[in-house]
Amino acid sequence: MRPALAARANGALARGAFRSVTTDAQAYKMILTETQGRVAIITLNRPKALNALCSELFHEINDALARFDNDSSIGAVVLTGSERAFAAGADIKEMKDTEFIGNYKNNFLAHWTEQLGRMRKPVVAAVNGYALGGGCELAMMCDIIYAGEKAVFGQPEINLGTIPGAGGTQRLTRAVGKSKAMEMILTGSVNLDAMEAKTYGLVSAVFPPELLVEEAIKTAKKIAAKGAVSVQMAKEAVNQAYELNLSSGLHFERRLFQATFATKDQKEGMDAFAGKRKPNFVHE
């Protein structure tokens, strides 16, 4: 087992919570992948660069996400970094000498968001340490964010003479409100610590750093144990709340609710409830 994964497994064993871990056979340079039951874990692995985001890293993230999204044995994904940094921002050395025409023609940064934006399965971000710039944007692309007690969220791009380019101005505003988003983005120096991020609704829960990933996996396992079709429909409906007006959103939700009655899991779930037993979902 690779060192980072072994350390995590050893920590779980010490807490008496060890589960069978399978290291993914796919070879990557900048990420580590593993599975625990129906949960896949992707760990950013550029420790010397504090997991700075670059094109190659995102190609690997996108490849792993696509594989897990199309794998029927996986029901949810956890995305994490190290205890020191989830991702401390973009790799400035990679982009500093690029020009507008090339960036525009090549649609620079589009591939940073494409796979997470079309993921059908839920993705839980486990954020320890720095989540700045692109790191904050990456976390916000996920469906649920859990934070370690020492996590720091910020959008400091203005200090580099530019602005957020992978969703910071849009997702952060929706999460924390216009005034706080403006303060963070325009000053480039106002960050949120973990508890502030929870207060603003940017993250769902805060945990000690050494417990964070295990807690994220625990939640992902709960999700993955539900009927996969209903989980994906629920995720789609919640995301549409950001795109549709209330009337259209309610209509969309009602149609998906009605559609669940064509699934085996709806029949099993309601029969189990009526029979006072635990449901056995088949993800169909």
Describe this structure in words.
The protein has 284 residues and is of the alpha/beta class. It is 47% helix and 15% strand. It has helices at residues 3-14, 55-69, 92-95, 100-105, 110-118, 134-141, 168-176, 178-187, 194-200, 209-224, 228-240, 246-259, 264-274, and strands spanning 22-23, 31-36, 39-44, 76-80, 85-87, 123-127, 130-132, 144-148, 152-154, 192-193, 205-207. The strands form 2 sheets. The protein has a 7-stranded mixed sheet with strand order 1-2-3-4-6-8-11, sandwiched between helices. A 4-stranded mixed sheet has the order 5-7-9-10. A hairpin with a 2-residue loop joins strand 2 and strand 3. Helix 2 (55-69) runs parallel beside helix 5 (110-118).
Percent helix, as a range, is 40-55%
Mean pLDDT: 91
Note the main sheet: 7 strands, mixed
First and last CA, distance? 34 Å
Shape: globular
Radius of gyration: 19 Å
**Category from helices, strands and their pairing:** alpha/beta
User: What is the ordering of alpha helices and beta strands?
Assistant: HEEEHEEHHHEEHEEHHEHEHHHH
Percent strand: 15-25%
How many helices in DSSP terms? 13
Strand order of the largest sheet: 1-2-3-4-6-8-11
Low-confidence blocks of residues: 9-19
